[in-house]
Amino acid sequence: MESESPGERPDCLACGLAAGTVPLLGGTLLRSPHWTVEHCVGPLGVGTLIVKPLRHITGVHELGVEEGAELGPLLTRVTTAVRTAVGDECEQVYVCLWSHAGRVPGHIHFVVQPARTSDIDRHGGAYGPGLQGALFAEGAEPETAAVEEFCGRVRRALGAG
Ligand SMILES: [Zn+2]
Fold this sequence. Notes:
With 161 residues, the chain is α+β, with helices and mostly antiparallel strands. Helices cover 39% and strands 16% of the residues. A 5-stranded antiparallel β-sheet has the order 1-2-3-5-4. The longest helix is centred in the middle third of the chain and has 22 residues, at 65-86. The site of zinc ion has 6 residues, from helix 1. Zinc ion is lined by residues 9, 12, 14-15, 56, 107.
């Protein structure tokens, strides 16, 4: 049985952000019947978005038929909006899913991350998982104003798509 009510797990950060019980910088960017889109709270840089199911599930194999059917078009739409919002610096958009913090399966969330020329150059040409590792090692939380500004741009891009 599928439930679409966010926040069903009070101990889950992803549920809390979706339900609004934990402050979310930039706010909800898009919501479909089964998924929600937010700016990433981690150190993966301004413009990295999260696409996650409203339901607290910890594996892609747990997705229901309707959840799965929404996913492809949603990832395409969000990735297109990220490319538009980032502009010329966007060499690629990475879409990945780890959800394994502390080796424990967590609320799944697809990371939609722009690979920017400036980030790659700053980290000695690192790209792909190497770039993600470098950004996590750097540990810099994105600046509030920059996240809010980006969220405005990506909202306009989502609205146009
Ligand atoms: Zn959750």
